Amino acid sequence: MNSPINYSPLLTYLANTPLENWAMRLPEHIAHGLSTKRFGDLPGWYRALEALPQVSANTQELGATVKVGEREALTEDQWLTLEQSFKALIPWRKGPYELFGLSINTEWRSDWKWERLEHHITPLAQRKVLDVGCGNGYHCWRMLEAGAERVIGIDPSPRFIVQFYMIKHFLAKAPVDVLPLGIEALPAKMEFFDTTFSMGVLYHRRSPMDHLLELRDTLVSGGELVLETLVIDGNLGETLVPAGRYAQMNNVWFLPSVPTLLCWLEKCGFTNVRCVDVTPTSSEEQRSTEWMKFHSLPEFLDPDDSSKTLEGHPAPLRAIILANKG
Ligand SMILES: C[S@@+](CC[C@H](N)C(=O)[O-])C[C@H]1O[C@@H](n2cnc3c(N)ncnc32)[C@H](O)[C@@H]1O
Q1: Is the CB of 132 under 6 A from ligand 1?
Q2: Sequence-ordered list of residues with C-beta below 8 angstroms from that of 67, at least 6 positions apart, any chain
Q3: Looking at CB atoms within 10 Å, which of 38, 167, 176, 209 has the fewest?
Q4: Whose CA is nearest to atom 12 of ligand 1?
Q5: Which atom of ligand 1 lies nearest, measured to the CA of 135?
Q6: Above 80 in pLDDT, residue 122?
């Protein structure tokens, strides 16, 4: 089945930049990342994307709730089709969104993370921005709203890619795209982006130093890294490597203390390294909703002591670190 996702505007853009060689190889990577042989659910998700009403958004408001279109712009039938298509892509984890009056109350209040960092980062106006592990691209829309010239998200999960293009379907000209790639698939020494975000990814990587070095390679000299990750309360040198699961996730590797993480970044050649926020994740920020019906944070914490996960580890604490490529 052919993909209904149109990457031509992004490929044309990249072909006129120092990344032109990558642009030539990208169609092959995209085909692999969106292979219906590898991902059996993809054809159903593509059908949901293709069923969306053929209209452009009459309004857009890319604020805390990413809002696209007004209810009145769709007929009753079009609205019901829209609802059906969006429900076909459940679970929706990152958001919130509102499409033509359809509220998507996602598992995460991703706007809270943005609120914690937006006043600390270098303003995104006219910057080229990379969002590594962007999920369904919620923050990519916020980056665009903050004035970025171009936003490219990458994420290896095809469900999230289709979710992103279900929103972009109504904002076809927006200079933002999400590629079906993991960070390891990016070319070495890209040195292209003015700001690179890595949020909620570091603890999923088996080799945190390699992740930091890969992020550094994506940036122009002086470019800014915005790193958000799980940390533990502790001193320099302390890191938790959970033996089994952490908050029921089986792919969590390194949870450093903030001083340890700052040291790792300096060791990897970043300068001006500083922590701008440390916040415990609350059960208001991450919870089950009608758009994400599986268990969520409240069920992952010890019912008798919410300062601990079910496994007895410290409950999720997240830090935001800024650093520059030296
Ligand atoms: C916890 S979510 C974070 C989403 C979003 N950045 C946020 O902060 O809300 C982690 C994301 O990283 C993605 N991911 C996992 N492995 C990755 C890799 N090797 N490269 C890039 N992204 C990856 C997952 O698919 C998932 O969407």
Answers
A1: yes
A2: 59, 60, 61, 97, 98, 99
A3: 38
A4: 133
A5: 27
A6: yes
117 lines ligand 1 (CB under 6 A): no
- Interacting residues of 289 by C-beta distance below 8 A, sequence separation 6+: 105, 106, 107
Task: Summarize pLDDT for 263-322 with one digit per residue, the tens.
Answer: 999 999 999 999 999 999 999 999 999 999 999 999 999 999 999 999 999 999 999 999
Ligand 1 pocket member 230 (CB < 6 A): no
CB of residue 199 inside a 6 A radius of ligand 1:
yes
Domain boundaries, the chain: 201-326
CA distance 299 to 252: 18
- Distance CA(53)–CA(63), nearest Å, equals 23
Do residues 195 and 222 make contact, with C-beta atoms less than 8 angstroms apart? Answer: no
Tell me how far the alpha carbon of residue 108 lies from the centroid of ligand 1, in angstroms: 14
* pLDDT value, residue 160: 98
Q: Looking at residue 42, what is its pLDDT?
A: 98
Specify the pLDDT at position 326.
Answer: 87
CB of 155 within 6 A of ligand 1: the answer is yes
- Pocket of ligand 1 contains residue 154 by CB under 6 Å: yes
According to DSSP, the residues that pair with 324 across neighbouring strands are 224, 271
**Residue to substitute in 92, 159, 204 for testing ligand 1 pocket (most ligand atoms within 8 angstroms of CB):** 204
Q: Which residues contact 279 (CB under 8 A, 6 or more apart)?
A: 116, 317, 318
**Per residue in 165-209, pLDDT tens?**
999 999 999 999 999 999 999 999 999 999 999 999 999 999 999
- Digit-coded pLDDT (tens) for 213-242: 999 999 999 999 999 999 999 999 999 999
Q: What is the pLDDT of residue 131?
A: 99
Residue of the CA atom closest to atom 18 of ligand 1 = 182
